[in-house]
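Key idea: predict the complex, not the pieces.
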Amino acid sequence: MEKLRLVRCATVIAAAMMASTALAEPKGVLRVAVGADPATFDPAFNDLPVANGVDLAVMDGLFRLDAKNNIQKNLATDYAWSPDGKVFTVKIKTGRKFSNGDPLDAAAVAASFNRLLDEKVGSIYRGLYASLGQAKAVGDDTVEFHLSEPNGHVLMLLANTAASIVNVKAVASMGAEYGRKPVGSGPYMVEKFVGGESFRLVPNPNYAGDFPATLKAIEYTVVPEDGARMALLETGEADVVERVPPESMDAINALKDAKVINPPSMFSINMELVLRGPLQDVRVRKALNMALDREGMTKGILGGLGTPSVGMVGPGTQDELRRTFAPIPFDPEGAKKLLAEAGYKPGSLTLTMTCPMGRYIKDAQVCQALAGSFEAIGVKATANVVDRGTWSKVVGLDPAARTDNMGMVGRATAGMDYTLYRLFKTGVGANRTGYSNPKVDELLAEGRSTTDLAKQKEIYGEIQKIIWDDAPFVFLWYQTQALGVANKVQGLEVQPNETLVFDKVTLK
Amino acid sequence: MSIPRRLAQAIPTLFIVSLLVFFFMDMIPGDPAQMLAGPGATNEEVASIREFLGLNQPVMTRYGLFIKGLWDPSVATSFRTHRPVAVELAERLPNTLVVAVGGLALGLVVGTISGVVCAMRQGGLAEAAITVLTLAGISMPIYWLGLLCIWLFAVHLGWLPAAGAATPMHFVLPILVVATRPTAMFSRLITANLLEALSKDYLDTARAKGLSETRVIIGHALRNSLVAAVSVAGVQFGGMLGGSVVTETVFGIPGVGRLLVDAVTRADYPVVQYTILMFAIFFVLINLATDLITQWLDPRTRDHGRTA
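Result:
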């Protein structure tokens, strides 16, 4: 009897193993409910994490990011810089095809990049990729980038979904419809797109890469209202729901067959200061930083969906280059002392802040709490909570044109160079604080031109240390993601930039 | 008054609306290029996107293009999707109309029936119940009622899908929820008008002809009460198009209302401008339709039209 059971057990295990080796056949339909409505999947214009996930599944890049934002080769087999750092050469896999059967050769890759860089196309990422210069196909399997300036961060740029390879021929014939049914070479393709309502991905029969489709279909439903979206998980109409609000986490965790997962997010939320008047004094900036009980705020206001900052850039922003520091202590007394040292009596300093509503988790409430905390160290602070249009206008102004003293902004970019160069280099048109430090400028230029990882690590470590000490921001926290996932979903991964990764997803 | 003449009269109205939507959109804060570029963009990148979107052209040129877009859809494209706004609207409009027309029709039928019941059974239990329900229907915010209905019918009872628009079943809850307000309004209105009409002499004439009480009410009293209901229905229908913004967000229906909200938050000017203009055209047409129906129901207004 005992033996028989053992035998039976062994058969079950063997069957299970057979099943897992036979997994190559895609099966099951994953249903995902998302809050944001992707207007386009065209990587040159998309700016939503939902569509990043679709682009990752539907298109191939030369490189890609894994669930931890580490760079992996995808179409690329090898790469090299020219000795002067001006030409970056990538060898690609041969014999690959787009989902419509068109060949994906070096010429197609070069055409895709030249489209992204073409001023007439008007891509929102043209500036970001401008340093790629021009792409040239050499034979069938080699692409050369003739860089407009030496850039040691090309890999990071190429691994982003914005650099996914687009079938330029299909774009020419489809026009704007390409944004709905993009022709790529990824494991899936968009089968159906109903604007504002739903879209469906199915396996791409022409796929020949390393991340084959595991699911028969991925069905997305767009439901902007939080409560209604959560209800879809409760009724079993969805297997994954995006953006669980803090107040719904307990209810979802109480469900029998679903729970909340909390992957880290690279979204670094800060009050970015305008470095003028009293805020030019580092003591005042430090005092503001010490006035906050970040631990209490992330628990009390964000419902746990935040981790107090230990550095300007969030986790997943090139972790190999990222440096973290001791959390800033909550020390109102010390803050008052610093203010006194800087010559400000309690009540003599008045600051205004600009905050968005509904852009970041509990942003408006956070701003009220910040005003209260500043009040407690004797700084009069007013929180201006404004609509999205006004907010993006104000935080996008040059420091000289700003009338407020700080603005709440979240930053999530895959690149260390991208983030730090834009935010802290003197005179760069995206530097909204007016921060200027010759040492940092020098290091940023050096870091951009070097291709040596060890050297980059040293340079960017030093920059991050200087920024942390100079405190041009009131550092707050990194947001934490919250997704409701049915227990039957296995292997779902989420990148720190909120992109869903379907590589290993199976349904039990 | 003839229909073509009425339509011609609407042209100045629509011209003023076009001016308002175009210039208000220009005045409200927010820069579409800045929003598309994101907070990490440099001034130069924003400027290049602004140039690409054509926002650097003189304001009169842009207004001219806006008007040209009314008959040439290729000029009027969304900033975000680059598809013609006409295509975007055509795709979303049926969903909005299904909910609005469905809600209005349901409200008209249920409201009329409950209104008649109320008028005929004054002081009864039915009247009390209907009065309470209509009061609730008028006062309940659609947003809250929608979430309550999702909880009851989708989560708790599991009868209907919670959100989305994939099948006809998905439209049942939104229509029910949207119908509450018109139902309540019509019910009240019909009751009040019927009660007034019931005391009129012409009903005694009808009864004296030997008609049954039901035929007296349906054929004579109700017909007169409907005149007021039709003009309210016109206003309600317009309100429902505006209210679609809320309903469509709660139930995840891809309609014009949500398209408009998304476009406003993303500063997609062309979509906002043409959508509002389309709503204005609808209002003009609805008013025309209400007038025509009223004329048909009430011969007196026809005579006024002729003598005037």
